[in-house]
Please model this.
Amino acid sequence: MGKHNLKRRFIQLFCAALYNANLEGFKERTIYKGDGKGVCVPGLHCYSCPGAVGACPIGSLQNAISSKSPGMLFYVLGSLLLFGVFLGRMVCGYLCPFGLLQELLHKIPSPKLKKSRVTKALSKVKYVVLAGLVILLPLVLSIKNGVSVPSFCKYLCPVGTMEGGLSFAVGGGSFAEQTGVLFGVKLGILAVIVIGAVFIYRIFCRFLCPLGALYALFNRYSLFGVVTDQTVCTACGKCRAVCKEDIHLPGDHECIACGDCIRHCPVNAIRRKNPFVKRKDDKK
Amino acid sequence: MKKRKTVVFFVLLLLGVVFLTYGIAEGGYTATLQKAKYICLECIGIG
Ligand code: SF4
Ligand code: SF4
Model:
């Protein structure tokens, strides 16, 4: 592992530890109720996880939509806009524990599924998940039936099942008694994603994660991340071959700014965005 | 191109700051805290 990758791995591990700083929660099987819980974290991390010290941005967004609370909606959207405009999908490459988990699972020796036209097409599904399960369904159910249903959490999210479900429902107690068919289905989804991640690089991130889809919209404009200088690029395709994401060019909406491609570019057209360094071509 | 990106960046930044400030003033932080303080049955696959 190169020096850069070590640095990235360290940040990912540090971040996972920070999001889960309420270690007592795991022992006591309770969740943290302190003031930090009102602050959204940048990555996908269930607020019903015993270790969580912050709020999940996607869970909060669905609740804001279905509770029709303008204050909460503006607060969550403001937080997401700021994370997005500063970091874009760099959050995925550096600050999301579920992304880290999938990367580690992919290290298990096994045959790996290569990128293809099919995976590229599947990478669009996450935008449907964002629009359908995170925004439209909670909105429609709340307007039509007056009920608050965080549909992505309820029907799909493997993070909540893993972090909250397994911590509370497994091992007895009142939560275990309440589990039913839905919990079984969600355990199945979690199993598919965990096993799938061994064979397919970041299977959930690339195809299903609505938070990744949301940050992708900011990637071109974010302050930090990776960018390709199109005036230097010769379109040799080396970066695309190295990258495990379904990118067209480094820095586009699928790029998580891991930086793996940078040293492979024969003409040094790829670089990290650095707002503190003035470049000759900055007026372009 | 570069100029357009800079303009979009600052517009989004301004929007983020305005939304966040307005949201906090309208009780958004408290509402988020209230929700996150309790175990969400839907999130953990029970509800
Ligand atoms: S795509 Fe989603 S789960 Fe993956 S790293 Fe990004 S926020 Fe986390
Ligand atoms: S394009 Fe480069 S920086 Fe972006 S995800 Fe792929 S390898 Fe990483």
In short: The first strand of chain A starts at residue 226 and ends at 228.
